[in-house]
Amino acid sequence: MNKRILIPLISALALVTSACAAQPATPTGPRTLTVLTHESFALSEDVLEEFESANNATVQFLKQPDAGQALNRAILTKDNPEADVLFGVDNTFMSRALDEGILEPYRSPALAGIPAEFQLNPENRLTPIDFGDVCLNYDKAYFAEHNLQPPQTLADLARPEYKDLLVVENPASSSPGLAFMLATVARFTEESWLGYWADLENNGVKVVEDWTTAYYTEFSASSGKGPRPIVVSYASSPPAEVFFAEPPLEEAPTAAVTAPQTCFRQIEFAGILRGTQNRDLAEKWIDFMLGVRYQGDLPLNQFVYPVNPQAELPEVFVKYSQIAQEPANLPPEAIAANRDRWIEEWTETVLR
């Protein structure tokens, strides 16, 4: 062979061999997907393992006491995100999450089967996953023992017979607390809702920072056996009481007030955090959350309703849970425009 041809050929082969040797080995171990969420998040182990096995992944959950606090953490760390996906932002906090620019748009193909009423973000930076009704819950035994009618309306809570009976969550730090505050704005209008809260404050309402403290420390029908028989929780809390009861119960010890204009319809969303290093895996997680397998696992783990109408509800959930037929809701744009001011006004009225 001509040396003028042979020498360049050898050089080229050497370069190719060198380049191939310099390429890093393709990782074979599972990647880690981190989901930032609230401490009420739960998922069956076999359902989680199904996702992990199908995607060669490990999912870890970075939990905060409440969805509002999870969102705060995502905002504070947005320049160096700690997670790939944020779950738990609801329609009370969604505008804040969107305004902070912490989320990347993604439209899951599975959204085609989700009712339009849940799809509140046209840019698809937030994907609806579940919904529930934030309502008053009461201890049935307390009211029976005291021969007292449980409250039927929000206005009832300001009456003397309900003095010192109610515990609520702070709307500045708690998503159910904010949802309940918004229900009072919707029910009593901009002109009189603060007067209503002044009446509640005078009637001994107790405010705590999060749902866990309200339900498990202050509420009399919970495992903590607290002093207050009325709590802001969910219409789906009574079936949770039955499901986890030891020994088993035939009837729920609690009930939710679901009369018109007493509850707030809360929709929970998931979103991909801007700056994720696992974008493809995050998309697969969003798809998985909308699938029937995950959606059917929601009711008995988080005691919320699935947004996917193909998911079946378990019997205990159907028997003891109620859906509010006429929630006291506000349009997302009204919440976005007024939420911070309303929280400040509420704080001035109730806490100062």
CATH-assigned homologous superfamily of the largest domain: Periplasmic binding protein-like II
Helix count equals: 13
Shape: globular
Helix and strand composition category: alpha/beta
CATH topology of the largest domain: D-Maltodextrin-Binding Protein, domain 2
According to DSSP, the number of beta strands is: 11
Radius of gyration over alpha carbons? 25 Å
Q: What's the main sheet like? A: 11 strands, mixed
Q: In the residues, how many domains can be counted?
A: 2
Helix content: 40-55%
Order of helix and strand elements from N to C terminus: HEHEHEHEEHEHEHEHEEHHHEHH
| Spans where pLDDT lies below 50 across 5 or more residues | 1-21
CATH architecture of the largest domain: 3-Layer(aba) Sandwich
Termini separation comes to: 94 Å
Beta content comes to 15-25%
Verbal overview:
With 352 residues, the chain is α/β, with parallel strands linked by helices. The protein contains 13 helices and eleven strands. Helix 6 (175-202) crosses helix 13 (332-350). The protein starts with a helix and ends with a helix.
Keywords for this entry:
disordered N terminus; 13 helices; alpha/beta; 11-stranded mixed beta sheet; 352 residues; 2 domains
Task: Briefly characterize the structure.
The protein has 352 residues and is α/β, with parallel strands linked by helices.
Task: Outline the secondary-structure elements.
Blueprint: H1 3-22, E1 31-38, H2 45-55, E2 57-64, H3 67-76, E3 85-90, H4 94-99, E4 103-104, E5 127-139, H5 140-145, E6 166-169, H6 175-202, E7 206-208, H7 211-218, E8 230-234, H8 237-243, E9 254-257, E10 264-273, H9 279-290, H10 292-297, H11 299-302, E11 305-306, H12 315-320, H13 332-350
Parallel strand pairs: 1-2, 1-3, 6-7, 6-8
Antiparallel strand pairs: 3-10, 4-10, 5-8, 5-9, 5-10, 5-11
